[in-house]
Amino acid sequence: MTVAVIQFGGSNCDRDSVRALSHLGIDAERVWYEDGLPTDATGVMLPGGFSYGDYLRAGAMAARTPILDEVREAAADGVPVLGVCNGAQIGCEAGLTPGAFTINESARFQCERVHVRVENADTPWTRAYDEGDVLSLPIAHGEGRFEANDETYDRLVSEDRIFLRYCDEDGAVTDDANPNGSRGNVAGVLGDRETVAVMMPHPERATLPDLDGTDGAGLLRGFESALAVR
Ligand SMILES: NC(=O)CC[C@H](N)C(=O)O
Asked: What positions constitute the catalytic site (predicted)?
């Protein structure tokens, strides 16, 4: 399998993502957005960064590039798609996943380690964990506050599509453990298909053993699990 890690102008986590996936034995390559999605891509990763300088809204411009049409088609065809941080913002802007990521409650860029709780272990992205597992992952964003209207949020809850929530180190989902003011402490949500997911914390920065913890590795292994349920 080859995961296409799509690089836009201003992406800055594309190399790290390829490196982390390769470390797990998952073949991955960077694809410049203008070159289009390779027809044999067996996965798509939208990496973190500041695509187009977060101009207008983070992810808004990248979401309107033609390659996103190809990503939407691939996603509808069951190709696994994971958006991380700026990739999560692009995913919501492109309609791959519901809701939106907007300016942190603090109105500041926040770069820190957080804890997230696995809310649903029955997704391709969380199969490596048990429900209730607490993961330590880095965040680095200024626009990571998840927002959704009541109808959308209630649907996400009832369909068990919120797969990660910010929590404290003991797994308690509290306001104090919510780094950015996200509704319901949401850190990761699924699209209409469980093979499509976005998340604000960076699993690729918590995969290589020399980078202080490997709690994120299981999330990236979702590319393998997702293909199995395709
Ligand atoms: N690390 C990132 O992907 C940065 C995310 C984003 N552009 C923000 O600051 O909100």
From this structure: 85 (nucleophile), 202, 204
Please give the residue range of the domain that contains residue 180.
2-229
Residue 115 sits in a domain whose CATH number is: 3.40.50.880
Rounded Cα distance, 177 and 167, in Å: 5
The residue from 85, 141, 167, 224 that is catalytic is 85
CA of 147 to the centre of ligand 1 (A): 16
- Tell me the per-residue pLDDT of 86-122, one tens digit each, with 9 for 90 and over: 999 999 999 999 999 999 999 999 999 999 999 999 9
Amino acid at 31: V
Ligand 1 midpoint to CA 48 (Å): 6
Domain count, the chain: 1
Q: Which of 54, 111, 202 to mutate to test the pocket of ligand 1 (most atoms within 8 A of CB)?
A: 54
Residues 6 or more apart from 69 whose CB is under 8 A from it? none
Q: Strand locations in 148-203, DSSP E? A: 162-167, 186-190, 196-199
CA dihedral sign, ordered 149, 163, 68, 8: positive
For residue 228 the two structure tokens come to: 């199995």
Q: 2 near 74, Cβ under 8 Å?
A: no
Enumerate the β-bridge partners of residue 145. Answer: 102
> What ipTM describes this predicted complex?
0.94
Distance from C-alpha of 144 to C-alpha of 180, rounded to nearest angstrom = 6
Q: What is the pTM of this model?
A: 0.97
Q: Please say whether the beta carbons of 61 and 9 come within 8 A.
A: no
